[in-house]
Amino acid sequence: MCAANVRDAGSGAAGAAGERGPRPGRWRQNHLQADAYEQLGHQAEGPQWRGIYLTAAKELREALAGVLLRPATADGPARSGAITLDGDPSVLETYGGLLDEFDPHFPIVTP
Length: 111
Hints:
Elements: E1 2-6, H1 27-43, H2 47-62, H3 65-69, H4 75-80, E2 83-87, H5 90-98
Antiparallel strand pairs: 1-2
Helix pairs in contact: 1-2
């Protein structure tokens, strides 16, 4: 089993245009967005929205969303020092190879 430990990546270069989710190197922006999600979560009346917002805030603060969505790509953040891997990194590569790749920007409505 391989575990990822996240450290503060600091502030750095901006992400690509149109990029969604947490952006490595943009610590302040990620935490500001996480603060907004956390406030929305605490104000949400429905438990499902509360969980969605609070989970999004946690993922932004811990910068794990990218690794969780594509575990096989954990070696990139590990090399840059954004996360540290404990255990055998090949386990993540093997696990990532079993997952399907999908386009997150698929058209919901076909023309």
